[in-house]
Amino acid sequence: MSDELTPPSASTPPTEPSPEPITPFGKISTGAGKRSRLRKWTRRAFIGAGAAAGGGLVLGVGGIVFSPNRLSYVPDGAEGEGHLTTWIRITPNNHTTVLVPHCEMGQGALTGLGMLLVEELDADWNLCTIEEAPAEDIYANGYILHAFLGEVGVSIPGFMGRAFDFGSFKMAQFAGLQVTGGSTSTRGTGVFGLRLAGATAREMLLEAGAEQFGVSKAELVARDSRVHHEPSGQSATFGELVGRASELDLPSSPRLKSRDEYRLVGTSQDRADIPGKVVGEAGYGMDVVRPDMAYAAIMRAPVPGGQLAQVDPSPAEAMNGVEQVVQLDDAVAVVAKSYWHAQQALDALEPQFTDAGLGHVDTATIRGWHAAALDEEPLAEPTQGGQVVTAEYCVPYLSHATMEPMAATAQLADGRLDVWCGTQDPLSTRGVAAAVAGLERDAVYIHNQQLGGGFGRRLPGTYDYVEQAVAVAKATAPRPVKLVWSREEDMRHGYYRPFVMGRFQGVVDEPGRIHRWASRFTGRATDGLEADPPYGIKDKDIAVVTSPAHLRTGEWRSVAASQHGFFAESFADELAHAAGRDPFEFRRELLSDAPRHRAVLERAADMARWASALPDGRARGIAIFESFGSIVANVCEVGVENGRILVYRVDSAVDCGLVVNPQQALAQIHGSVIFGLSAALFHEITVKEGAVENRNFPDFNMVRLAQAPRVNVSFIESDAPVGGLGEPGVPPVAPAVANALFAVTGQRLRDLPLHLA
Amino acid sequence: MIDFTLNGEAVSLDVPPEMPLLWALRESAGLTGTKFSCGIGNCGACTVHLDGAAVRSCSVPVANVAGRAVITIEGLADGEALHPLQQAWIDHQVPQCGYCQPGMLMAISALLERRPDVTDEQVTESITNICRCGTYERIRSAVQSVVQKTDEDLDEENGNV
Fold this sequence. Notes:
heterodimer; A: alpha+beta; Aldehyde Oxidoreductase, domain 4; 19 helices; B: Ubiquitin-like (UB roll); DNA polymerase, domain 1; 2 domains; 5-stranded mixed β-sheet; 5 strands; about 15% strand
């Protein structure tokens, strides 16, 4: 089992070795244009090491790129077309720094990813620092993510597909990504990149120790940042060995630990970012302060595609503290000496915007478009005998509504652009900012900050707030300007979870077998994988129907699984009831060929004591859904009081393969339940006269402490590949609540948010 | 000029009297721990203490604090010693993105200060701050640990142990 997590290309036979890449830290070729030719894969080639400036070892995994049929690794060195990501630094005083190419937005990725590397390195966790890598090409992880996703047959996350054309498989298209999203940090970068880097460094340190002690490497063990020779009692620190280690040849096949050898992975470790977050010191994009900085507030055309027709700037210009009114193609901004002055002055303006001919659109119009699209693709009449069940479901547009509204600070001076903001991909943000400024990417510096929530809102393709800040900075140059979105602006200009409608048809018989499962649902052409239920069903007919969109859409925590979890698991419940079966037993029997799913379902039912009695007016609902490589089942206990839906308790069972940092894994499920519950109970972005109607939290409400149910979580570790954890907890929340509501009230609610009749 | 006490120090801010306290704190006093999120007093991210009471600083004109005492998240700890809630937040690893947590801590600490015998259930019922990451489960555990500690301390003081 020691190889169950080897890199995806391990089965590809190595070809002849290429020249050894020795790249000093800080002198790495970063020219994206040079990485234009694929080389054959060689294991020797894809990890590079070298002496660090000032002493010490640096080590990294070279860029992995996807080619149509197989994976390739780009070697560093020869002809300069490769690159080296430098992820480990060990200094002579025995301190290890791990540079993680992901951002921290509260999900604990830096800690978890650092643990994966440090585990393989056998370093002392207390002698390690985990840092977020800067926005440089050498830390691009798009290669790894894309290679990983291609290898395991997972659909490409939409944010990557939209930002880049995958059809041509050009390496340059992936060079510019340093993204955190798609629940890929641990299972992509961590499993296929950082673990390997750690194991490689350990092998080299052992080799150096063998030389120093004059013994065989096989007699040595690495532990707690030291290499030990137990027979003789000799030992040396990594710091003492690192100079020699950095001169050694790279091991041809570093051994990865089996899971039963783990000592750090699987233990709960505190996150390093938390102390700063409880004393007010953590710096978010909103908090950036630069010398001589101006502040800006902005209003964009409320209807998608609308442009600024005209605005009289004089009411704002006459106000105290206002510096200038900046007119953009589709927005007007006011620059002032404080954000409050800027927003007050903006509110005094009466800008006229065009509506791109969409001023007549409202939510009912959009619903009609989706229904018409589905009408074009009717489901065939079933040929099987049994009870036929049909149903139509619908979910609304949803805002990410991060607690930190969009904000970015930009400064154009002396031919360079600096941007301070929170982004889920600092590297592609760099390209976006450069394009707006009309500068080469090399002249752009992204200073990524803590993210006050991401959930998909700060992904590639959604950097409008950065584009606006740079555009305004052109007007304030050389002074820096901080652009802050009001909550109202943030609510009206999201990249929303799409509005989606689905039609379902099933045939079920008395014993509870599903003979047919057919569905048509609106969405993007790439959607659909999530819509395939895990149950044993012979006749499945599942297809996406593309439909017109109105609002901008994006990746909302759990993406297409957010609607398909609700659709599929509500419909499975309808089939169970049609067959007169218990919803848990019905599912369990249909999962006889899916043992992981079945174990997760049974665990959740056990935790909730599924068959036990409840007080009058309460019932349980169950749902199970797989997404991002992990399986989650929820049992929700629900009641109704004075017409209000109350969720008392959620029992959640999770199989994500491997749990790296248990306390953070738990936190992700806690958070996912609340995130899913807010959507199930409250969230609905509505459209009137072409524009989003919602303004602020009162009309896009959130679950608060008093409504938050107790959440019990149980992890089932399996030998399955490592799954994601940031998102898979969300999809099975809404259907479990809806199914429980049916059990309580007899009302089958097929639209979100859930409103009782 | 608006004069008031900020985290124990006298300050004098040259801001318009109708400017919300939030922006005076963030942009004039340079204390960015107090967060802007909704701007209408709904979410609680901007909560500070005004004469010991929790207020949503986005909805308090700075003129209203003249001559009064304001405490922000930067002033919640007693010098190097963290407030018991801050320590509990670390012990229970409460924050995720962390953006709401200064407001959450200020709201709950004010409640505990004014009602030392408050139960964790009453905290749950009283605190309406939003956490989008959904850290409520751990907020409850952390609050419970502090409330219980307070009870034990009281017992100890009363010689009940």
